[in-house]
Amino acid sequence: MRKYDAIAIEKLQKGTSIIENNGIPVILKPSPGEERRGYLDPMELSLMGDHWAGRSNGVEPTEMPPMEVLIPIMRENMGFPNYNLNTVEIHTKYEEITDSGNKVGLWRYYPRKSEKNPKRPALVFFHGGGWIGGSVYTVENFCKLIAELADAVVFNVDYSLAPEKPFPNGLNDNYYAVKHVYDHAEAYGIDPEKISVAGDSAGGNYAAAVSLKAKDEGTPKIAMQVLIYPAVTMADAKVEGYEWSEEFFEVSEEHKDIIKSGLLSLGRPSKMEENLFLGAYISNEEDIYHPYVSPMLAESHVGLPKAILAGAEFDGLRVHTEFYAKQLKEAGVDTTCIRYKGMTHAFIDKLGYVPQAEDLCIEIANAIRKL
């Protein structure tokens, strides 16, 4: 079930253009319902009030309730009810692994018709949610659609959340989940040379960090990293050449108040004590500068797996996304960077409501098929 016409997907697939940012090419995906510059996509705009990423409650930091009260509220409000767009039967399996020392749920999805193929590609996905929330269920339909389109086995990791399990718990859960998949590739019927990792927002941070850790450890072998509006630096940590400014966002006068009232807050440099998510995720302020927390700060990005980075035009993390693409490309990594015009943070949560989420599934699946 879709809330848009198939022609919207055709426009997104065929109506792209190339712009340059930070000296690298960025694929600009059009907004099917809005051609003007600086305007939100109409469907995205209509849904914003119902999605956690687009809400602004007007509460000043000094009025915030204590973390133990606030975090359950935030968890409850994360995600968006999306649609299953599969057209073939998808098998769903569940298991629990403990390789990291935590009990971690590992879901996997694959088309029934490909069950006897012993060399399928695989994707291991890490959901978003600011390291403190989010759910495998929010991204389940997104993962299942990629499984169908790529004829792949897609794993969905139910990793530990902060503050109950701070850094490096979630990172280790995700790293060892990928290693588990790699070590048991034959049993899962997948090709160990074609295992990719992916994630959105905090999950994108994990995908980047897991790729760095896998390079450092020499295992598992990762063929591709897919970073969807990833957070790649924390608080006010940065490297030479990196800057963040609202001036980087072209905003129409008509939508200025909506966009600047909260949509650009993610990724904006801040002090650690001002960042609820970060304060819950890391216990030691020095960890801000750890490359597994802030992948932008890694000593070297040479030798990392090929990458797809996808960002939303009106998301503060777009600056992270496109700068990290520059870092990877300059390190010799095969890198593709995509910007979705008119879109905001967490748009993949709205699969079936906005065509951009489905289009990104197509882009990821096509890349997996080419591995």
From TrEMBL:
InterPro entries: AB_hydrolase_3, AB_hydrolase_fold, GDXG_lipolytic_enzyme, Lipase_GDXG_HIS_AS. Gene3D superfamilies: alpha/beta hydrolase. Pfam families: Abhydrolase_3. One of its GO terms (molecular function) is hydrolase activity. Signal peptide: none annotated. Keywords: Hydrolase. Residues 123-348 form the Alpha/beta hydrolase fold-3 domain. Belongs to the 'GDXG' lipolytic enzyme family. PANTHER family: AB HYDROLASE SUPERFAMILY PROTEIN C4A8.06C (PTHR48081), ALPHA_BETA HYDROLASE FOLD-3 DOMAIN-CONTAINING PROTEIN-RELATED (PTHR48081:SF8). This is Alpha/beta hydrolase.
